[in-house]
Amino acid sequence: MANAATAAIPVSLLIRRVRERIESGFPLCWVSGEVSNLVQAASGHCYFSLKDANAQVRCVMFRQRVQTVGFRLENGLRVEARVLPGMYEARGEFQLNVDGLRRAGVGDLFERFQRLKEKLEREGLFADDGKRRLPPFPRRIGVVTSPQAAALRDVITTLRRRAPQIDVLIYPATVQGEDSAEQLTAALTQAAQRHAQDQCDVLILCRGGGSLEDLQSFNDEALARAIYASPVPVISGVGHETDFTIADFVADCRAPTPTAAAEMAAPDAAALRARLAELSVQLRRSATRRLEYVSQRLDWLTRRLQHPAQRLAAQADSLRQLQRRLASALMHGNAVRRSQLGSLTQRLLLARPDAAQGARRIDALAHRLTHARRRLLEHKAARVGALASSLEHLNPRAVLARGYSIVSDENGRVVSDARTLEPSQRLTVSFRQGQALTRIESLREQADPVFRSPSEDAG
Questions:
Q1: What is this structure's pTM?
Q2: What confidence tens digit (pLDDT) does each residue in 197-209 have?
Q3: How far is the first Cα of the chain from the last one, in angstroms, to the nearest whole number?
Q4: Distance between CA atoms of 57 and 50, rounded to whole angstroms?
Q5: Which parts of the chain have pLDDT scores under 50?
Q6: 18 burial level (CB within 10 Å; 0-12, 13-18, 19+)
């Protein structure tokens, strides 16, 4: 039998133990390198290698994490990845599970973005309950962007195509550069202050796509607070679908592109006209059905229509019939009540008590009660006398009166056997009248003498 210390273990168990050791020994960390061998699977997961001049390692980034990357992942791109070292057990290969990804060299910007995002989220600026609904039919839309931006042309083109009746008001500001964040904040503040005059129903904050540095103006804290404080709903249409900024999280709605922001803000005129035509057809059908129903009801009511004289005559006949029925009901009711009254009177006469007979019965009962009480008292007196006589016979004093006495020792116990006594013992002798103290001189053992009463001795 093989020694337990040298017993073979399955490969899967070995790889699992190695993976557990690696994952427990290395926490999440940042690794920099160049992307190579990039494969984007149909499931949305990304598989690639990170390499530098001396080594390379396989990496996997799952779909949920890929969707948070704000740029297009390509071969040859230098990146910084937040990874968890591990093992792919099916092949026994060492790999890195990528949790987050950022461009190399912009780590500081990304860190600031993350810190600001977490801070504003804790303050509730991203909460859904603070989001406002967009107006379904705006009359004027304000656009905060650069007049030279391609995003503005996309927005205006989309609005003219979908809803040419809507006025467009532009609040100019640069969307990239050192003072772009301040200009964007000032433009939003101006739109809020001129809300009563400009009467914009919704604001679009937009620009085209770009790198993290290009979009840094939209990650400004002051701009985020201006969006949150705006009295008008704000749509953020910054960058492309994969670009995320702080403005996207604070805005009431986030659009993946500026064109999509314009589509969110304005209803489609063609769709509205089609819906209006559909509702018009439904309205005509409903009105036609209503008129047909009213006409039918009018015909029915016309047949029921009666001349006032005929109606009055019919009501007079009905009134006379009701009067006759009322008189008949009154007469019948009175007869029934008279019959009930006679019957109740007869029952009352039969139920009236006879006072004289009651008095005689009371006298008889009183006489019987007196006689019974007397007999009971006599019986009880005789019973008491008998019991008193029996008690007198049992009275110890009566026994003493016949010349007997009671002997008791020093403890008060009655002495009934001379054998329990000792010479010189003191005794108490109780007579009918008084007591005597005595001392035993001697004891004799013999049968009890026959006692005679004093009257027998005299005889």
A1: 0.44
A2: 989 999 999 988 7
A3: 130
A4: 6
A5: 1-2, 450-451, 454-459
A6: middle
